[in-house]
Design brief:
heterotrimer; A mainly alpha (220); B alpha/beta (274); C alpha/beta (278); A: 220 residues; mainly alpha; 74% helix; C: 278 residues; alpha/beta; Rossmann fold; 2 domains; elongated
């Protein structure tokens, strides 16, 4: 039953969504079935968000209780969750500091702490890409040389002063890069990967719906 | 219930079947038939050839390296939720990798970003250890919920990499902007890295920073490739047949649209978006 | 160890330091490099510009705060353009982390400049979980997915939403995204309901969307901060993205320089090793 029930549910829901895709939405009973299933997904998804909060609080509290390595930082985690969550859940009518809108504690903490921290982490990518490019772009083989040359041209093309330099070379180099590199080779390769990945995903979905693939359940 | 309400009061005449989606129906039927035919073919014991995928062949070797060095294996099944097919592919590969780490008694660390992935990951790893006869060696903390936010997750995993120096990092699933943060930190920590994702925009970062990269469909083929189960390999062959068909259709379309005036637009109209 | 060998094996932290210094230079010496406009950005601008006045447009905030530098200028420029054309704007988001708040603050601030009224000229629907279910559900009824707006006001009390029931009343989708939700908008909404759309995305994602642009599934593409700067130039409102091009230019040159010098070092070291028979 532990193995069979999930497989049956996967088959029924997957097959329903596939079949209803080809039916008119006005068909009695089955027409709106897929939308109903997707509505249920929204409801279940809401509960999983709650599950994540409960999980992080539980794990952090256990670490603090047992004084495991890094327990002090877990106190900061718990305090952060409570400071963000509690004021945002209280009604705005009690105080403009409550709720999620402009002027609230939640909004202030988000815009002044979390958003800058997220942007900072993303900004570190600039440093990482510089060091990765410096290390990886070596003309070791003909293919690596081609990669290196293409990347250098695109990096030039993508910034104003670089494009101005490329315009000094005879022939419309920026136009060549746009037409034949970005809208030519790049477009073709992206399509190939997207089609391949989509087919792979479809095959995997079919195997899951038919119960052939069960490794995601830990069995098979 | 709205479904019955519409049935009771609908007076309009309409067609049950959506004729404008017949092209999609033909594609779905052809695809399913191809997968099922080759799956059956494989079940009857016919040999099936799969080309070598270097990244997947290196998994066992990479885990062996970790065992020799006495350092853990870090596996990240992507940072998306369990409703994404890439995450399911990553979890499937995790099962295979966990069997190998169980056999070699190598420590395994699996940080996850979503609670459902945590639950699935714990189940998969536990079953893998039991299957390998090392049920006692399984620890619940091997699979850990780290953080729900993308960069908090990346920061925590980076910290782990710099402190514990895992010998092997395996990234299999859906990744976004944090892919380079993870891969570059892993490179700095001296780990051998194998990555696989279906996101074309993240592939360049993995190619630059990892030792092996699985591209697109290779990720979805990994479970079948590592298990060598005939039934799963049959599905791969069916998928390949569809790809050949798509290539033929593309070539036919190019020829018809370029060199004919009537047939080209007719052919093109068959593939209007659904 | 020769200079080239030392440079070839340089600690990555020196690279980080060089990048950091390079980023600071334009703050001290502003450069204002001229920005040319790509065909994809021009096509996007022209598509929005050719919309009839008072068209209904969905301005979608599908980006995390982490990509504010690249995506927010696009959203701001888009809001300016749409309000200039007296379009009715419906904002929403498939991202829970702050996108509804950003949508709220940006649209209200820009709307005030044009004297636009909330509920009549623009509405913020907020966020709902589940990309596929939300996008498909709005094809049937927006109210079934978003019964209230971001502040809890029922849609029936908002004049704009009294005639915008689903995608049939939407004339254009201006999608600003830093993740896979743009793919869902294209495959579900554009493909299923034929609503024209343009995509603004991060520079990392832009190469992928050339495939959709080439197929005509999107009318235009804004790639990264350069794309945002192009839109600002076309709108004649150079702002954050335009100023950011100075920094991007210098860092690109730094990376190119490091790659060139690194390769010189690689070849010098390789030749030296061959000479000594290694």
């Amino acid at each position: 039953m532990r193995t069979t029930a999930p497989v049956i549910i996967a088959f029924l829901t997957g097959a329903t969504l596939v079949v209803t895709f080809f039916l008119n939405e006005k068909t009695p009973f089955v027409g709106q079935l897929s939308n109903q299933l997707l509505d249920w997904l929204i409801i279940i998804g809401g509960f999983t968000l709650l599950l994540g909060v409960v999980s992080i609080l539980r794990v952090s509290w256990q670490t603090v209780q047992r004084r495991k390595e890094g327990w002090f930082y877990k106190i900061a985690t718990i305090v952060s969750v409570l400071i963000m969550a509690i004021p945002s859940l209280l009604p705005v009518s009690w105080s403009p500091l409550f709720g999620r809108f402009e002027g609230s504690i939640y909004d202030w903490l988000f815009m002044n702490l979390q958003a800058p921290m997220m942007a900072t982490m993303f900004a570190t990518l600039a440093f990482y890409i510089a060091s990765a490019a410096y290390r990886a772009f070596r003309a070791r083989t003909p293919e690596a040389t081609l990669l290196l040359l293409t990347a250098t041209l695109v990096m030039f093309w993508r910034v104003p002063i670089g494009e101005a330099i490329l315009n000094l070379i005879p022939g419309d180099v920026p136009f060549f890069i746009n037409k034949f590199v970005m809208n030519g080779a790049n477009l073709a390769v992206q399509r190939g990967i997207i089609i391949g990945a989509a087919l792979g995903a479809a095959a995997m979905s079919l195997r899951i719906i038919l119960g052939i693939e069960r490794t995601y359940m830990g069995r098979g | 219930m709205t479904l019955f309400a519409e049935a009771a009061f609908s007076q309009e005449e309409f067609s049950v079947f959506r004729g404008d989606r017949i092209n999609a129906l033909i594609a779905v039927v052809a695809f399913s038939a191809a997968v099922l035919i080759f799956t059956n073919w494989a079940k009857r014991g016919k040999p099936l050839y799969l080309r070598k995928i270097a990244g997947l062949d290196a998994v066992e070797e990479a885990v062996g390296r970790a065992t020799e060095m006495g350092r853990p294996v870090l596996f990240i099944p992507g940072i998306d939720d369990l409703d994404q097919i890439e995450t399911i592919a990553g979890i499937s590969i995790l099962g295979r990798v966990a069997q190998i780490t169980a056999q070699y008694e190598t420590p395994l660390m699996v940080p996850v970003r979503y609670p459902l992935v945590l639950a699935a990951g714990q189940e998969v790893v536990q079953q893998a250890y039991i299957h390998a006869g090392k049920g006692d060696a399984y620890e619940k903390d091997m699979v850990r919920y780290v953080a729900g936010e993308q960069f908090a997750f990346a920061a925590t995993v980076n910290g782990y990499m710099m402190r514990e120096h895992p010998a092997t990092n395996i990234y299999m699933g859906a990744f976004f902007a944090e892919s380079l943060l993870l891969a570059e930190t892993g490179n700095a920590a001296g780990s051998i890295q194998i990555a696989g994702t279906g996101r074309p925009e993240q592939l360049p970062f993995f190619v630059a920073a990892c030792d092996y990269t699985l591209m697109g469909e290779e990720l979805f083929a990994a479970s079948a490739y590592l298990s060598h189960e005939p039934v799963m390999m049959g599905g791969l062959k069916g998928q390949d047949l569809m790809k050949v068909l798509i290539v033929i259709l593309i070539l036919a379309g190019v020829i018809l649209v370029t060199f004919t005036t009537k047939l080209g637009p007719i052919f093109k109209s068959w593939f209007q978006a659904v | 160890m020769s200079f080239w060998e030392r440079f070839e094996g340089m600690d990555r932290r020196w690279v980080y330091l060089m990048v950091g210094i390079t980023v600071l230079i334009p703050f001290i010496i502003p450069m204002k490099f001229p920005v040319s406009v790509s065909p994809e950005a021009r096509s996007f601008f022209n598509a929005v510009d050719s919309l009839p006045d008072s068209s209904t447009v969905m301005l979608v905030f599908d980006y995390y705060p982490s990509t504010i530098a690249e995506c927010e200028p696009m959203a701001i420029a888009g809001a300016h353009h749409l309000f200039q054309k007296h379009c009715k704007i419906i904002t929403l988001s498939n991202i829970p982390y702050g996108a509804p708040s950003m949508a709220e603050s940006i649209t209200r601030r820009i709307a005030a400049e044009y004297g636009k009224e909330y509920g009549k000229d623009f509405v913020n629907l907020g966020y709902k979980y589940g990309y596929v279910s939300v996008l498909k559900g709005m094809g049937v009824s927006i109210e079934s997915i978003f019964p209230t707006d971001n502040r809890g006001t029922p849609l029936s009390e908002l004049p704009l939403m009294n005639y915008v029931k689903n995608y049939e009343q939407v004339d254009f989708i201006f999608e600003v995204a830093d993740n896979a939700t743009a793919d869902y908008w294209i495959s579900i909404v554009n493909a299923g309901y034929s609503v024209p759309m343009g995509v603004g995305c991060t520079a990392v994602m832009a190469p992928k969307f050339y495939a959709f642009y080439g197929a005509g599934q999107i009318v235009g593409l804004l790639g990264g901060m350069k794309g945002a700067a192009e839109y600002e130039i076309l709108l004649d409102k150079p702002s954050t993205a335009f100023r950011g091009m100075d920094i991007q230019s210098l860092v690109h040159f730094l990376i190119i320089g490091l790659v060139i010098i690194g390769n010189i070092g690689f070849f010098v070291t390789k030749r030296k090793k061959r000479k000594i028979g290694v």
